[in-house]
Amino acid sequence: MVKLRLKRCGRKQRAVYRIVAIDVRSRREGKDLRKVGFYDPMKNQTYLNVPVILYFLEKGAQPTGTVQSLLKKAEVFKEFSSNQNQMKFN
């Protein structure tokens, strides 16, 4: 099973996170399948590669709680639901 979760980067006391698609059995710093975004909690900056995130969500990837809240703020789930509706009608 694939999850979208945070991978810690940066230096001591100055953490930044990559949002990655990773196998659920891997550890936090393990090998990821694909980097799909970036989150800096100090500057409150977020970069998301939305088409790739939508691809993984369509394939059944489950976001963790923190990643899910970041995706909600960026309104990715609205695009995901509209994309799902378009696929049903085609």
UniProtKB/TrEMBL annotation:
GO terms for biological process: mitochondrial translation. Pfam families: Ribosomal_S16. The keyword Chloroplast applies. It is found in: Plastid, Chloroplast. One of its GO terms (molecular function) is structural constituent of ribosome. GO terms for cellular component: chloroplast; mitochondrion; small ribosomal subunit. InterPro entries: Ribosomal_bS16, Ribosomal_bS16_CS, Ribosomal_bS16_dom_sf. The keyword Ribosomal protein applies. Keywords: Chloroplast, Plastid, Ribonucleoprotein, Ribosomal protein. Belongs to the bacterial ribosomal protein bS16 family. This is Small ribosomal subunit protein bS16c.
